[in-house]
């Protein structure tokens, strides 16, 4: 009796990966083993960079808050310490947005913290 292989399923599995690697350069898009390795590595990068994205945005918010705080005569660390001591619950994302788009509101928070 000849060996039975489910070629329909295995071809579909390969086609699915090759469809996902369609825009890649050279053999990465059409050679099965290279495409599979590239696709798997891309998933690893995506997982890692979802974590790094949070880190990068937090660093950006801190830089923006620091720049705006220094215009008001405070450093970032002094401002954040004073905000927490004053009991103002505002996160860095919102504070950075105020610093960029609403300087008057940011100045009001700084003045409230200084008092």
Write up this protein.
The protein has 115 residues and is mainly α. It has one domain: c-terminal domain of poly(a) binding protein, CATH 1.10.1900.20. Helices cover 76% and strands 0% of the residues. Helix 1 packs parallel to helix 2 and helix 4 packs across helix 5. The longest helix has 40 residues. The radius of gyration is 26 Å and the shape is rod-shaped.
The structure class reads: mainly alpha
* Helix/strand order: HHHHH
Q: Main β-sheet, in a few words?
A: none
Tally of separate domains? 1
CATH class: Mainly Alpha
Q: Indicate the proportion of strand residues.
A: under 5%
Count of β-strands: 0
End-to-end Cα distance, whole Å, is: 90 Å
> Helical residue percent?
over 70%
Low-confidence stretches: none
Query: By CATH's scheme, which homologous superfamily applies?
Result: Ribosomal protein L20, C-terminal domain
Mean pLDDT: 95
Q: Given the C-alpha coordinates, what overall shape results?
A: rod-shaped
Number of helices: 5
Provide the CATH topology. Answer: c-terminal domain of poly(a) binding protein
- Please give the radius of gyration in angstroms: 26 Å
Mind telling me which CATH architecture this is?
A: Orthogonal Bundle
């Amino acid at each position: 009796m000849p060996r039975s292989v489910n070629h329909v399923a295995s071809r579909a599995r390969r086609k699915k990966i090759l469809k996902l690697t369609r825009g890649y350069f050279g053999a990465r898009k059409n050679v099965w083993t290279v495409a599979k390795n590239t696709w798997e590595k891309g998933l690893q990068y995506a997982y890692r960079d979802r974590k790094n994205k949070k880190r990068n945005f937090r660093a950006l918010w801190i830089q923006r808050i620091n720049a705006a705080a220094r215009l008001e005569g405070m450093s970032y660390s002094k401002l954040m310490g004073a905000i927490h001591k004053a009991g103002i619950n505002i996160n860095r994302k919102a504070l950075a947005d105020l610093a960029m788009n609403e300087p008057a509101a940011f100045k009001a928070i700084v003045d409230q913290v200084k008092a």
